[in-house]
Amino acid sequence: MTNIDPAAPVLVTGGSGYVASWIVRYLLEDGRTVRATVRDPKKAKGLEHLHALAEAHPDRLTLHRSELLEPGSYTEAMAGCELVIHTASPFLLGKVKDPDKQLIRPAVDGTRNVLASVNDTESVKRVVLTSSVVAIYGDSIDMRGKDRFTEDDWNTTSTAKHQEYAYSKTVAEREAWDLQAAQDRWDLVTIHPGLVLGPALTKVSKSGSMATMDHFTDFTLATGAPAMELGVVDVRDVARAHIAAGFTPTAHGRYITNSESMSMLQIGKALRAKFGYRPSFPLFEAPKAMIKLAAPVAGLTRKYVELNVGYPLRFDNSRTVTELGIDFRPARDSVVEHFQQMIDDGMVRG
Ligand code: NAP
Predict the structure, then answer these.
(1) How does pLDDT run across 207-256, given as a tens digit for each residue?
(2) How many Å apart are CA 313 and CA 309, to the nearest integer?
(3) Neighbour count for residue 245 (Cβ, 10 Å)
(4) Which atom of ligand 1 is nearest to the CA of 233?
């Protein structure tokens, strides 16, 4: 049982990110005081929504400069916090030039640095870490012999050369559990979202969520979608799950935070049902052999296609529903609202 003082400030790392921005907003709406870390609090673009939130909630939101790769960088902002929500980590999909530099070190060394600051900050009682379903499984083929993934499953197949982002999340989470086990002052709860979709408060996020939805506008799926399923979850439900994980005294362990699985074609169909025919929405699934042939052009490896196309993907989200009280929005609503925002923001024609 961990009781967090609702009057104590809450630290949110990566506060300007797609997911974290909703966490910050809901914490403020719940009456909490929030310290959000960002890489550059003076930057002209990308913090407007946080400045607006600070204005709407006087004296309850402050921004602090922190960098994942700088040891001690989070300590000052953490002083007096009982709850730390660590979301900061790069989410890059497709071909990444230098996975070690761009993904693995920020995720793993960053988690180590944040948790070293936690160890140095006597007030901290709980850490909520944003992990991912990709720390649960590596490739869809891992579903063979199972009817669904649960929190007991771990990704054992990703490496620094295959599914690099999944590898970065898995190693970072393992590191977090190891560091938690080495002491007994603070406990750890991990949140495992599928692909997060839905309206964004920030317009500049480079999250893989945005990159995935861009495929429904850039014609890469016009010649047929890969027969691939994704776990989909609404960004607002993910934010609420982090907060419930922080403030529910009995919360513990790992929580799969996923609404439903949707195939790329089902996402296309949901978009077509709402926005009408657009040539960039897929109308059918392409044969696996064709997807494999075209993989390098799309920034994918043939191995990735081999292990992920043509397999169902199912997750058991019951712990999050029953223990954290999340009533997941239907995935198709998140898809549609995400696309609507792309139209509203002028990224796609209406
Ligand atoms: P995002 O918008 O790109 O947010 C990532 C955040 O990490 C940004 O605030 C970014 O700061 C920060 N960050 C990256 N590198 C950093 C560094 N070296 N030092 C300090 N901060 C750094 O992506 P997101 O989708 O919200 O992802 C947030 C978390 O959710 C990540 O841990 C991700 O792995 C996890 N997750 C996301 C999804 C999804 O579908 N979106 C699914 C499962 C898990 P800047 O703003 O300064 O770049």
Answers:
(1) 999 999 999 999 999 989 999 999 999 999 999 999 999 999 999 999 99
(2) 10
(3) 27
(4) 40
Could you tell which of 67, 86, 89, 214 is best to mutate to test the pocket of ligand 1, judged by most ligand atoms within 8 Å of the CB? 89
Q: Please work out whether the CB of residue 207 comes within 6 Å of at least one atom of ligand 1.
A: yes
Ligand 1 in reach of 228 Cβ (< 6 A): no
| Residues annotated as part of the active site | 169
Looking at residue 331, its amino acid is A
Look at the domain 10-344 and name its fold: Rossmann fold (3.40.50)
Q: What's residue 299's pLDDT? A: 82
Q: Using a 6 Å cutoff on CB, does residue 206 contact ligand 1?
A: yes
The full DSSP string for 162-208 is SSHHHHHHHHHHHHHHHHHHT-SS-EEEEEEESEEES--S-S----H
CA pair distance 4, 186, nearest whole angstrom: 11
Rounded CA Rg of the chain: 20
Q: How far apart are CA 173 and CA 100, in angstroms?
A: 16
- The ligand 1 atom at the shortest distance from the C-alpha of residue 133 is 43
| Domain range summary for the chain, segments of one domain joined by + | 10-344
**For ligand 1, atom 18: residue with the closest CA:** 68
State whether the beta carbon of 205 lies less than 6 angstroms from ligand 1.
yes
